[in-house]
Amino acid sequence: MSTETSPTGSRRKLLLAVAALAVLAGAAWGWRAWRGVEVATQAVQRRDLVQTVVASGRVQAPHRADIAAQITGAVVAVPVRQGQAVTAGQLLIELQSAEARALEKQAALAVTQAQVRLRQLREVQAPVAEQALRQARATLDTARAAAARSEDLFRQGFIGSAALDEARKALELAAAARESARKQWESGQPSGSDYALAEANLAQAEAGLDVARARLRYTRITAPRAGTLIDRNVEVGDVVQPGKTLLVLSPEGQTQLVVDLDERHLRRLALGQSALASADAFPGQRFAATLAYINPGVNAQTGSVQVKLDVPQPPPNLAQDMTVSVDIEIARRPQALVIGLDAVHEPDGPAPWVLKLQDGRARQQTVHLGLKAAGVAEVLDGLQAGDTLVTGADAVHDGQRVRARATPAR
């Protein structure tokens, strides 16, 4: 015997199934509502917080040395190249020196002649003059004695006036000869005119030799100090003129970074602030720098202020005019209470707030923020270390039941 299902029974079974599904769905929804919406969270923690200003700039030596010739001459050698490191005193450019060497020899000969003249004055003329003076004095003494005898004989009538006049003239001539010999002797003494003239001639000759030697030295242009040649504008065969820049030297040990910062950072800058920098060509090699100069003026066109940072120990691959990235530390908070800015609502408003996970619900909490840096902020008031905050959940409202999203196993 077959059994048939009536249409009324089928509808009843369908309704029962739908009702069962509805009950199950409602139960599931109620369970989820009771557990709360799954949200991303973060914990409030304590750690050192550093605020930096990030900018880019260039490497620059505080002083560049422009190397130029001091005389006109033809270049015969340039034994250096652009970008080469040189030591103090190293030959950079050599000029034609044949004429300068000839002038030096000529000046040296003039010095020798002047020395010989002074030596001759000391060793020959001075002794001769002294001997002539002794002889003139002796002749004068003899003439005086003869004149005295002639005076006696004339008074006694033994000789006439003509003989007396001869004796007197002989005395005058002897006195004049003695005076001439004395002057000749004095001129050859260290305080005399001939001696002074000989010394002046020697000094003039020595000065001429110094000039000739300096001119010869000018044919060899050397590095005034150690550094790197960052520009070269001379080749062998060029005829150079005095004062024209031929090479540019960047001295070593005086490296600075020149950076233009937005003027809004000016109030936070202070001399001595530390920084970390890296050349764009070598981003993985960071080095220390110190803020050494803040331009008191602001560029009206760009709204920026120029600062300079000293680099006490520049890396060997840091070259002049390289582009660098600089992080200047403008503030530091040791062991500050820190939260991510992605958990803060209206962070720049008058009353920023967060949603704190408390007893399974999101509770709005006003916070007082301090230092901000690199996506995080310092909390001065409103939270404690270990508090859990809802992040990235704009749809969550105050009082809503929520639960922390489970971290996937790794």
UniProtKB/TrEMBL annotation:
Source organism (scientific name): Roseateles paludis
UniProt family annotation: Belongs to the membrane fusion protein (MFP) (TC 8.A.1) family.
Pfam families for this protein: Beta-barrel_RND_2, BSH_RND
SUPFAM superfamilies per UniProt: HlyD-like secretion proteins
Oxidoreductase listed as a keyword: no
Domain CusB-like beta-barrel span(s) in chain numbering: 258-328
Record-linked InterPro entries: Beta-barrel_RND_2, MdtA-like_BSH, RND_pump_MFP, TAT_signal
Protein name from the UniProt record: Efflux RND transporter periplasmic adaptor subunit
Coiled-coil region list: 133-215
UniProt keyword terms in alphabetical order: Coiled coil
Residue ranges constituting the Multidrug resistance protein MdtA-like barrel-sandwich hybrid domain according to the UniProt record: 64-246
Disulfide bond keyword on record: no
Gene3D superfamilies from the UniProt entry: 2.40.30.170, 2.40.420.20, 2.40.50.100, Helix hairpin bin
